[in-house]
Amino acid sequence: MSSSPRPAGRARSSWADPRFLIGVALVLASIAGVWGVVHAARETAPVLVAAHAIVPGQAVTVADVVELETQLGDATDDYLVASDLTEGLVSTRTIAEGELLPAAAVGSSSDADVTTVVVRSALDVPGDIASGSTVELWAAPLVAPGEHGEPQVIVADAVVGQVRADDGVVARAGAVLELVVSRDDVPGVLAHVSGGSAISAVPVLVPEEDEAASSSPEADDGSTGADG
Hints:
three-stranded antiparallel β-sheet, alpha+beta, Type Iii Antifreeze Protein Isoform Hplc 12
């Protein structure tokens, strides 16, 4: 007698296959990862931007900055936000107009070993010299009434704080400059001022690589707002 054939086993459901479940999990993880990257790329944070040139030793206040939404990612902590503007905060280097304020570019007044001196330029000041410009300060010492000696550089990297218009009764050549200089340079500058030297400010050309290094990270064009 022939034995009856055994009934065929029930086909195993594909959704119960471990390989199928692993594949689904990998797809979901990939989708979540892409969503996270896109979401992070669209996140912005408010940081401070210089509303005008800020020179070394200058106090940084709400009047000197605007708030800007930027996409900096992990670099956000490297720049100042509104809550960082505490009393006594000063710039330790020149911060250009429109530049994001780096946390490393500010500190207390003791961190900026500079001061301001006022000099009158013997020559007309070039039109491209403005607040924040770096200049060489040249002086030709007075050797006799109406006669000056060979000019020499007395400060190699002074920063222009302000160019004042001459408000004297009799107009004189040149302009009055407020210059930020190292405290070590002050005695020499004052000696030339008091000694009647002919003083002139000459613009210093900034190398292109330095300009690129100090450029601000790209900011989001979305929302901006004045912080004061």
